[in-house]
Design goal:
- With 375 residues, this protein is an alpha/beta fold.
- It has eleven helices and twelve strands.
- A hairpin with a 5-residue loop joins strand 3 and strand 4.
- The protein is globular, with a radius of gyration of 21 Å.
Length: 375
């Protein structure tokens, strides 16, 4: 029987610097625009005779060499916005031209589990709830430390928790007894409680020889994902964030550290997936809201547009996708990189070839998929 694939999303918050992630080391223009920030020699790991990985991405380089890493070059959207909040909203809602509060992955959860039978179809590791997962009627568990996770942890006993929920329900009860706000609040609350009870058991059943570094936040998030995935509770979407990549100053140090942390974390996670017999069914999607400006500002880079994203896994057709952006002045967008790959094409690919959901039901229109995920 064919196993369903699961999606692990890693959001690089703050705007990852495309040019110092996938480096055009044979371009004289790159070093002209970045006299202080240009990477060379031991700071790069060549992919071919034009571009290279940042040297802190050695784990991803190995995955690329094994044909398990797809690099989406020049990814973005029409009419780019340099605001963190607006740009991330666009990525989260897949709506470049309209404002929306409904996330593309929240809509996906509703497609996967229309009746809401599983309160942990999607799990977020980190504080708050990314808008990508927000959708009316969809319950999403948001976890800090998995071992101590639980809603209303100071309230002991299921009966007391039910009393608390009933009290909350009556406080917000509108005049109409069938009011939607009250119903959604109660359903979400009960779903969160059920999810907490399910997730609380995951660490107890988890056994692994992999040691994730405790001082590496993204590694700890991926460990939590491995714990939940190994429990096989029906979770299909896992979400984690890493950053901040908002490297206006001291970029060489901070950007290198962030990629070093992520590389170590992914190395641990991939080894753990293999140990848990999950590597064939797990696909990792890594993205950021935008790239940085082509020219450095002295010690860092400012908000840009076109960026880079990655799809990683045993079922991924590795390679380079899209065109590396032209740095010629005539090809620039006001000092930024033009996008050449619409991110919604990647979403279409992920929706249909990873999660088994009709893309147009989530994106509201048809986009060309990339032949990037093996059946």
């Amino acid at each position: 029987m064919k196993k369903e694939k699961n999606l692990v999303v890693i959001q690089l918050s703050g705007g990852n610097d495309y040019l110092n992630t996938i480096v055009p080391y044979e371009s004289g223009l790159y070093y002209d625009y970045r006299p202080n920030m240009g990477l060379k020699n031991e700071s790069i790991l060549p992919i071919d005779n034009k571009i290279a990985f940042n040297s802190n991405m050695d784990v991803l380089k190995k995955q690329f060499d094994n044909d398990n890493l797809a690099i989406m070059m020049g990814i973005g959207y029409p009419e780019p916005n340099r605001s963190h909040f607006r740009s991330m909203d666009i990525w989260h809602t897949a709506e470049p031209f309209e404002s929306s509060s409904v996330g593309w992955l929240g809509k996906t959860v509703k497609n996967i589990d229309p009746k809401g039978d599983n309160p942990i179809t999607a799990v977020n590791f980190g504080k708050g709830l990314p808008r990508a997962l927000a959708c009316p009627g969809v319950s999403v568990a948001s976890v800090g430390a998995l071992e101590s996770y639980g809603l209303f942890t100071g309230v002991s006993g299921s009966q007391n928790r039910e009393i608390l929920l009933d009290t909350v329900d009556r406080i917000y009860q509108p005049m109409n007894p069938d009011g939607i706000p009250s119903l959604r609040l109660l359903q979400t609350g009960r779903g969160a409680l059920d999810g907490a009870d399910l997730l609380a058991e995951a660490p107890n059943a988890y056994k692994s020889s992999i040691e994730y570094p405790e001082d590496n936040p993204i590694a700890q998030s991926l460990k939590g994902i491995a714990q939940v995935a190994s429990a096989r509770l029906g979770t299909r979407i896992f979400y984690a964030q890493h950053g901040s990549f908002d490297t206006h100053t001291d970029e060489l140090k901070n950007h290198s550290l962030l990629w070093q942390q992520l590389s170590v974390a992914i190395d641990c996670f991939q080894k753990d997936l293999k140990e848990q017999l999950l590597e064939e069914e797990t696909v990792i999607w890594i993205f950021s809201e935008f790239g940085r400006r082509i020219a450095d500002n002295g010690t860092g880079t400012d908000h840009g547009s076109g960026g880079v994203a990655f799809l990683l896994g045993k079922s991924v057709e590795g390679g380079l996708y899209g065109d590396y952006p032209n740095l010629e002045p005539s090809a620039q967008l006001e000092g930024d990189i033009h996008y050449n790959t619409d991110f919604r094409s990647l979403y279409s690919t992920i929706l249909e070839d990873v999660l088994g959901v009709e893309a147009s039901s989530v994106l509201n229109e048809k986009f060309n998929k990339l032949d990037i995920v093996k059946n």
